[in-house]
Amino acid sequence: MRLKESLELGGQHLLGWLDPDRDYLPTGSWAITHDLGRWWDAMLRLEDATGFVIPGDMEGASLRNLHWLTDNPDGLMFVPPGLDWHPIMFEFHSLREGILTFAALAKFRGSKWAEQAGHKYIQTLWDGLAADFSWEVNRFDYAKYFDEVEHRDFGHTPFKANQFQLSVSHGRCIEALVWYYRWTEDSLALELADRLARFHLGHATSADGKIPHYLYDEDSKAGDGQSHLYTLCGLLQFGLLTHQREYIDAVVQTYAVGFPQIVRECGWVAHDLGLSRYSDEIGNPSANTESTGAAARLALWMAMHAGRADCYDDVERLVRARLFPGQTTEADRCSNPDVVISDKAIGGWGANDYPHAGKGFNPSGTAEVVHTLSAIYQNITSRDQAGLFVNMHFDYEGPEARIEVRREDAASVTIFPQVEDALFVRIPGWAKSVQLFVDGDVVETVMIGAYAQVPRLGSGPGRKVELRYDLPER
Known about the structure:
alpha+beta
C-alpha cells in the first residue's frame, strides 16, 4: 500500500459517510457534532497534502451544517434540541473537534466567519472552565435542556463520577488550540492553551516519565488512551510554540518511559486508559487504529522537533505494522469471500474485534488517521539551508523530489532529486548491509547523525540516488 493511495482511499471513505438524505450530515455513528468536526479537519488537511478534491455540493452542505450546529448562545457544536432522529448530548469530548474545524477553515479557506466563530467558541470554553479545571456546567446555555448533572455526558461516563477524566475533555484541546493560534494569531487561543498546558503538565505527566498512577491504574476512570496521546501532542506543540523547554522535556521523558506503557511496539493501543470498559469479541481490551494514529503523530513531532530522528523509525513501523493493515480495502473482500464487507467500509479505520483482525470503521477513526497520514506525507522530505532531507521511506512525489520504494528480497529507496542541493537520506536504525548508489555507481556511505550524506548533485533527467538495505528480521 502506498501512503498517498491509502490517504485518498480514506478520503473517499469520509465522503461516503455523508448522508444525502440528511443534507450530507455524517449520520450513523456516535454523534453528528463529533464526526462533522473530524470530517472538516481531515478533509481540509488531506486536500492540502495531496490535492484531494472535495465535491462542492458536499462542502457547501457541510458548511451549512456547521453553521446550524453552532447556531446557539454558546457557539459550541451541540445537537439542536427537538430532533426526532438524534438525541441531544451535553458532552465535552468533542470540544477539540470544533476548534480544529474553525482553525482549518481559517487556514485553508481564509474564512473570516470561522475566525469569529472560533473566537466565540474559545471564549465560551474560557468562561466555563472553573479554577479547579472542572467545568462550570451551569454557565453553558445548553445545560438548561438537562435536569440532572448525571445525565450530562462529559466524555464517555458521567462527569461527577470521573474526576480524572480531564484529558478526555480539555487535555485533548491543547493541540487544537495551538493550531488555531498558529493559523489565526488569536491571542485568546494561546492564553487558553497556556492555562490548560500548565494544568496538564502536572496532571498528565510525571518527573519519572511514567503515566501517572491515577490515570493508568485499573481502578481509575481516566478515559481513553487516544485523548492522553492528544494531550501529549498538545504539550509538546505548546512547548515548541512558546519556547518553554519544560513542556518539551516532559513529553520526551514520557515518550521514553510512559509511551511504551500504552503503545505496543506493533502499534496496538487499547482504547481505554485505566478502567477497562470496552473489550473485543474474545475478551481482550478493545483497541482502535485511531489511537495508533495519535501515537504515530506524536512520534512524528518527536522526530521533527525534539531532535529524535530515531522516532522516524517508530512512525514507519506504526504505519506499516498497524495503519496500512488496519484499513479496510477491496483486498479484504478477495481474501474473505464468506464475509460481507459493505461499500461503506472500504477505506475506513476504526476499532478491532480482535487484537489484529476484525477490522472496524467509523468516521472519527478514519478522520484521525487521515489527519496523521497527511502530516506524515507532507514531511517525508524537508529542506533547509543544509540541503534536502529524506526523512521517511514512503513513495512520494513533490516539487523537491520523487521517491520510489520497493521491497523484495531487500529494501530499495530510489530518490530522483528535483533541486540542486546536498542530499541527506535517513538510514533506519535497525538497517544492516546498507549500500548507497549515485547514478548507478556505489559510493561510500558517509553518515551525519542518522542520515547518509550525498554530495550536491545537479538536477536533471536521469539523476538518481538509491539506498539499499536488508529488510528487518521481524
